[in-house]
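Q: Can someone sanity-check these two? First one:
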Amino acid sequence: MPQDRRRLDPASGRHRALHGWRLWCLRTVTALASVGVFLFLLEGGLRLLGIGYPTRFFVESEQKGMLTTNLYFGWHYQQETLTTTQPCLFPVAKQPDVIRIIVLGE
């Protein structure tokens, strides 16, 4: 048996090979962890490079201190040509005596 698939048996002090369901559990966990790490690194790399578009409904406007609707928000739900949002513009900082009510839909 290869050394990397053996482990020490505490009772006898000898190495014991992984086999059966334990070996398959180790393989499954390794495969899933590898895919998870790959996707995590891919997502981080794409974010660092600035690839993609924002997914929030409200995004920062070109005017400093203002928010507007995200033109790309509907792309998650329909084709690019079928989705449009009604533009609105409001300040990021809300005054203390103001209540914001936002109704989405038609």
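And here is the second, same format, sequence then tokens:
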Amino acid sequence: MIQLYTKKANREIVIVKPVEKVYDKSGKDMKERLDECLSELGKSPLRGADIRPLTGQLRSLYRHRIGDRMVISRPIDGCRDYCDITIEGMLIRR
């Protein structure tokens, strides 16, 4: 598990081990895009053009789209606006 802290907002971003493995196996271009995603999530974790809440049984999760991948995140302590988040997964859209 990786814990990142953003400089401006003093937010914590926790990345679980399976996501860390996918990140490590990604190419240089995808790593740059994922780094940009994490930076954006650090600024505003639940608001943005590509951030959407999931529905149904997954309604406590949010997805952030990066090209053909989706980063799945969960707010820590269930807050709604500006909060710490956990990156729960990364999926490839097909």
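A (reply): Looked at the second one. Residues 28-43 form the longest helix (16 residues). The chain has one domain: 2-92.
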